[in-house]
Specification:
Strand content of chain B: 5-15%
Low-confidence stretches of chain A: 162-189
Oligomer: heterodimer
Structural class of chain B: alpha+beta
Number of helices of chain A: 15
Shape of chain B: elongated
Order of helices and strands of chain B: HHEHEEHEHHHHHH
Low-confidence stretches of chain B: 96-101, 306-342
Helix content of chain A: 40-55%
Mean pLDDT of chain B: 80
Number of helices of chain B: 10
Shape of chain A: elongated
Largest interface: A-B, 77 and 77 residues
Chain lengths: 540, 342
């Protein structure tokens, strides 16, 4: 009897621990405040089981440093810095329990559960958000250099616009050089290739390009001949959006100084708001002490100059003129864009710039409805599976089968508690693995019961048959389960999210079935035999 | 008290040639399908975009396909996914896909454009969407291949440690058979091979091995117990003795996989198909592949205790194995082919 009591204590302790692991508890969560949109900490009462993205909906992104425009020497370092920036941005973005982690050396994983606007989330994550202020080309150095640039382009065989634009485009992308050679004589007197496309804007350093010529000009100015002949210390930057002048769409091109007077690193605060007078979306920002001092000095030197605000290589709005010293505060005008875009910009400016552009290499997006449906279907299949197993076991093994079924409920409890206790994530394949493992879990009991039957057939007494049945079945049980655990371990090692969830449930399931099918059922048999010492036939 | 197949006395091994031909035929059919149609890889492996969406009213798939052709995604698949109003579009990246994500993003955008065009903006609800770059696709291919290879190596090592090498080899051949048969099944059914399906194949490996081990465990035990019988008889005896267990366990497992297949939804269905087939082939191979192969191995490379193998070579015993006369050729009973347990 003492032996039975010890076993019961162990089982009782396991059950208590499992139940404690599953008690709904207060969990601290960062959730977006309904009124202000800011993140705040709240406590939520819930069962501590993590559901994977495929069960609760959301997006999973794998990002890498964009190497398409030249290799990045130390991608591991870049990703580490990017991780900090992305984490800050996501924290402010307003998603509950986001995952931001580095995978391997150079890959960043971002998981946002329950996110409903994936395009916006992607924009916030991927935006480089490098902000800088530069003075426009006040001395007109670019204008002076234009004839030289035109000449360089002509020399390279680029025809001017006057010879019909379509052929110029085709030449840029294909290069029919024979035609170019034939036309070269005519080209010598033609207006400049580039200058013909540019109209002088309303301030020094501003040029306007017709909207439909924009791609052509963009390809022209990025040619090596042009960059080589550009005046020292001057660069070209496009305006962020097209603007209409005289009812025609134009795109602004700015010649700006190569050296920025200040960058977004000095920014400490950024807030989006709508200007009451102009009804524009604006982002008001504040600089750090150091930045403000530097900004004051620089703006004092450049009074009456124009200052371009450049974000990720694009000039935002029309460069304002510097009327006097500017201190710590300034603003970026976004025109008629919606306020949400302004607040997203303010967010990424606060979080800081990414060290390098990131590109998405893997993206999964699951709607919350599909996730809920999956949970529903998976649970339904699980219940039907369990009922079928119960019917088979009790129908075939009667009382012993009922004991196995009782152990099976403990098995379910242990497995789910195991998932909760170790903080593993339940995925859809994991759920399937759990349902499957219910069928496999009774295998140990089947092996034992068949063995006991055999021992009884061999004429052994009840007690000895039960003891020997358990003992002799052990070998096969251990061997067979080890092989399953080994394959599950491999699956965990090489798999990704959902598949890992499957492997984990399988492994925990096998561990739980060892306890329930062997230890628990043996205890039940001992109690049964203890209660009925006069029993001669076993209901098995 | 229900007794299924207790004291069963079937001569399983006798049917080995028939079983070999049957499984060979299945594999041949699978091979033909594999060559003609190829493997239906999911975009996890090929790279590309797959979108699963729902609409309120039925849309002709031909219309969606035409729109996909129009945006330049020739060869993209469109098919119903579970119900009449649920569809999946799948556009793979070409084999020539380059590094850098421009291609992947462009394909994703093109799919979105085609859907806006054919179904209408806002007329469909995206249930899930996946875009995989070529690099990640190649990585996952490598990983899946590694997983299957590694599982073989590890189980082989485990079997070598637990059993004598002849048993290990026979079990491995049986398991390899299951993998090939499952691949044949996948190609005939044209199931989409995703990472989860690879996971199912590995689970089939574990399950089948489990089954083979149960029978071999009994063979090992019976070899010790019945020293006067040959291997042919002992194999048959062991399979018969473990038959009730096989029927019961496969019954409960089939019950749960059928529940998954019929009730757990479209997403998990390929997994459930592979598992259901795997349970059949796993059971089949433990009896009709593993045991005959063990017999054959014993014949080719007889152990110290080569009883049965030699007999088997010269005179195939007929009739009920338990009633067959003991073979006088058996060597001294001290040396055992199978290792004693632990």
């Amino acid at each position: 009897m003492g032996k039975i009591r010890q076993r019961l204590i162990v089982i009782g302790a396991l059950i208590v621990v499992s139940i404690i692991a599953l008690i709904p508890r207060h969990v601290k969560q960062r959730v977006p405040d309904a009124t202000t949109g800011r993140m705040k900490d709240t406590t939520v009462l819930r069962v501590p089981i993590n559901l994977g993205l495929d069960l609760q909906g959301g997006i999973h992104l794998a990002l890498e440093v964009d190497q398409s425009k030249g290799p990045v020497p130390d991608c591991a370092d870049a990703i580490q810095r990017a991780e900090r920036v992305v984490r800050t941005r996501i924290d402010e973005f307003g998603t509950t329990e986001p995952v931001v982690q580095i995978q391997g050396r150079c890959r960043l994983i971002v998981e946002l559960a329950g996110e409903k606007d994936p395009a916006r989330a992607k924009g916030v994550i991927q935006r480089t958000a490098f902000l800088e202020f530069r003075i426009t080309d006040m001395k007109g150095e670019f204008k002076t250099a234009l004839p030289a640039i035109d000449a360089a382009l002509r020399k390279a065989g680029v025809k001017s616009r006057s010879n019909a634009a379509p052929s110029a485009v085709s030449q840029l992308f294909g290069g029919d050089t024979t035609k170019a050679a034939r036309d070269s004589a005519a080209d010598a007197n033609a207006p400049g290739v580039l200058s013909a496309l540019l109209f002088t804007g309303s301030m020094p350093g501003e040029y306007l390009v017709e909207e439909q010529q924009w791609p052509l000009v963009d390809s022209l100015i990025s040619r090596p001949e042009v960059t080589a002949t550009m005046p020292r210390g001057i660069e070209l930057r496009w305006g962020a959006q097209s603007e209409s002048r005289n009812a025609r769409p134009y795109r602004a091109l700015y010649a700006v100084e190569r050296q920025s007077i200040i960058t977004g690193e000095e920014l400490v605060k950024a807030v989006a708001r709508r200007d009451q007078l102009t009804n524009q979306s604006i982002v008001a920002f504040q600089l750090s002490h150091r930045g403000a001092r530097k900004f004051e000095q620089e703006t004092a030197r450049h009074i009456n100059d124009f200052m371009a605000i450049i974000l990720d290589g694009r000039v935002q709005g029309q460069p304002p003129v510097i009327r006097g010293q500017i201190g710590a505060n300034g603003q970026i005008e976004l025109g008629s864009k919606p306020l949400q875009e302004a607040s997203d910009l303010a967010l990424v400016l606060r979080a800081g710039a990414l060290p390098a552009p990131l590109t998405i290499v893997d993206e999964r997006q699951i709607s919350a409805t599909l996730g809920t449906d999956s949970v529903h279907d998976g649970v339904r299949a699980g219940i039907v599976g369990i009922v079928l197993v119960i019917v088979i076991m009790i129908g075939y093994y009667r009382m012993s089968g009922a004991l196995a079924v009782a152990a099976l409920t403990l098995y379910c409890l242990f497995t789910i508690a195991g998932l909760a206790m170790f903080g593993f994530t339940l995925t859809l394949p994991g759920l399937a693995g759990f349902v499957l493992s219910i069928g496999i879990a009774v295998d140990a009991n089947v092996l034992i019961f068949e063995r006991i039957r055999e021992e009884l057939v061999h004429g052994k007494s009840l007690r000895i048959a039960v003891d020997d049945g358990f003992l002799h079945a052990m070998n096969a049980i251990v061997d067979s389960n080890v092989s399953t655990v080994l394959t599950a371990l491999i699956l965990y090692a090489v798999g990704t999210g959902p598949v890992q969830g499957f492997a984990i449930t399988l492994i925990i399931g096998i561990a739980a079935s060892m306890i329930s099918a062997i230890f628990v059922v043996k205890t039940m048999f001992l109690i049964w035999l203890h209660r009925r010492p006069d029993m001669v036939t076993l209901s098995i | 008290m229900i007794r299924l197949f207790s004291n069963a006395n079937y001569d399983f091994i006798k049917w080995r040639r028939f079983a070999f031909s049957l499984t060979g035929a299945i594999m041949l059919v699978g091979l033909v399908f594999l060559i003609v149609r190829g493997i239906n890889y999911s975009i996890e492996f090929t790279g590309g975009t797959s979108v699963q969406f729902e609409v309120a009213h039925k849309v002709e798939t031909a219309k969606i396909r035409a729109a996909l052709d129009q945006v330049g995604l020739v060869g993209a698949d469109v098919y119903n996914f579970g119900s009449d109003t649920s569809y999946q579009v799948r556009a793979r990246l070409g084999a020539h896909a380059t590094e850098g994500d421009a291609g992947t993003q462009a394909v994703a955008d093109s799919v979105a454009r085609a859907l806006d065009h054919s179904v209408g903006v806002g007329q469909y609800r995206i249930a899930s969407r996946q875009s995989v770059g070529p690099k990640v696709g190649r990585e996952l291919q490598g990983k899946a291949f590694m997983a299957i290879l590694l599982s073989f190596v590890v189980t082989l090592i485990y079997l070598a440690f637990r059993f004598e090498w002849r048993f290990g080899l026979a079990a491995t051949i049986a398991t390899a058979h299951d993998v090939v048969a499952t691949i044949a099944f996948i190609s005939v059914m044209h199931l989409e091979v995703s990472l989860v399906v690879v996971g199912a194949v590995l689970t089939v490996v574990g399950y089948s091995l489990n089954d083979t081990i149960i029978i071999f465990d009994r063979v090992r035990e019976n070899l010790r117990k019945y020293r006067r019988q040959n291997l042919y008889e002992i194999l048959n005896l062991s399979i018969n003795e473990t038959l009730p267990r096989s029927v019961l366990t496969h019954g409960t497992t089939i019950a749960t996989t059928l529940a998954l297949l019929l009730l757990a939804g479209e997403v998990i269905r390929p997994f459930a198909w592979v598992m259901s087939f795997g349970i059949f082939t796993g059971t089949f191979s433990s009896i009709y592949i593993a045991a005959p192969v063990l017999l054959w191995i014993e014949k080719r490379w007889p152990g110290e205790d080569a009883r049965g193998a030699r007999t088997f070579g010269t005179r195939a015993p007929a009739g009920a194995p338990q009633s067959a006369p003991a073979t006088p050729t058996s060597s001294p009973p001290t040396a055992r082919t199978p290792q004693p347990t632990r």
